[in-house]
Write a structure and sequence with these properties.
Immunoglobulin-like; rod-shaped; 6-stranded mixed sheet
């Protein structure tokens, strides 16, 4: 049997230091593991929950989160966004509003007591725009009063005696707040007047343009177009019937804009057609067309 005095002395030293303040002369470098409770697409305005696990809290000075477009490097300052630490809820957990629509990688990083920066794995989350059909289904939606006002303005701008008709329209926007728990704000843009058309042989139309105010950064609000709305004209000026709902031109415009469309139009008299000389105050409803949600970034 071999006996080693040097080995015995080393063991005794380690045993003596076992309960001292610095019992481990070679501290374990922390490892961060990031996970999310959001397994499916997240709609803008909803919250994202992130959990961070580590094998050595004692060596960590602080933990933070960064956001970068999927696949892009995060070890430089270009296109990297740092959410406020106000979203840190304790117990190594973050709850924050979803970033703007797109494919994003969330990464946790720790600053150690030795001033090293250690990164976690990436968690990829796809953020999407809201489904616009809720407007059609909810008479109490925040746009109905603006839609009704646009319809009334369309009626006031139409003159049956001179066969003059006109359409109205606006873009529907949403803003995303940086305050957790605050509702996303939906609102109508400026009302746009289409040209007045006093010929029964030419259809009136209205062109509305998107005016996004996208401010990059998870702690900054931005204004995002999520749909476009317009009225169809009265049909008491001319004798011919017409189809109700989205026209072929409307469908093409929705595809071009990559934006859901809503049109206020009459309930059909029969077979999807409203008769000529229909009372201008006849029943009218919202028709939804185009993509279900905004598809461009």
């Amino acid at each position: 049997m071999l006996f080693c005095n040097a080995c015995t002395n080393q063991i005794n030293v380690l045993e003596k230091n076992e309960h001292s303040e610095n019992s481990n002369p070679f501290p374990i470098e922390p490892i961060l593991i990031l996970s999310s409770l959001n397994y499916q697409d997240v709609t803008m305005g909803e919250t994202i929950s992130l959990n961070i696990e580590t094998n050595n809290d004692d060596e960590i000075e602080s933990i933070h989160v960064l956001i970068v477009e999927s696949g892009k490097p995060y070890d430089n300052e270009t296109d990297v966004y740092y959410p406020s630490d106000d979203y840190f809820t304790g117990y190594n957990s973050y709850i924050m509003p979803a970033f703007k629509a797109g494919e994003w990688d969330y990464v946790a990083y720790a600053i150690t007591k030795s001033n090293k920066k250690i990164y976690s794995n990436r968690v990829s989350i796809r953020v999407i725009y809201p489904d616009i059909t809720f407007i059609q289904e909810d008479r109490e939606s925040p746009f109905m009063s603006e839609m009704d006002a646009a319809w009334d303005e369309m009626l006031a701008s139409s003159n049956a005696k001179d066969h003059c008709r006109r359409e109205m329209g606006f873009i529907i926007y949403m803003t995303v707040s940086d305050i957790i728990g605050e509702d996303v704000i939906f609102y109508a843009g400026d009302l746009v007047y289409g040209r007045t058309n006093c010929s029964c042989s030419l259809p009136p139309n209205v062109t509305v343009t998107i005016d996004d105010e996208i401010i990059m950064g998870p702690d900054l609000p931005g204004r995002y177009a999520i749909a476009w709305f317009h009225t169809h004209p009265v049909n008491d000026c001319c004798g011919g019937g017409r189809n109700v709902g989205a026209s072929n031109e409307d469908e093409m415009e929705a595809a071009k804009k990559e934006l859901p469309g809503l049109v206020y139009d009459y309930v059909p008299t029969f077979g999807g057609i409203v008769d000529g000389y229909t009372d201008r105050n006849a029943e009218h409803v919202i028709y939804v067309f185009g993509p279900k949600r905004r598809t461009f970034k």
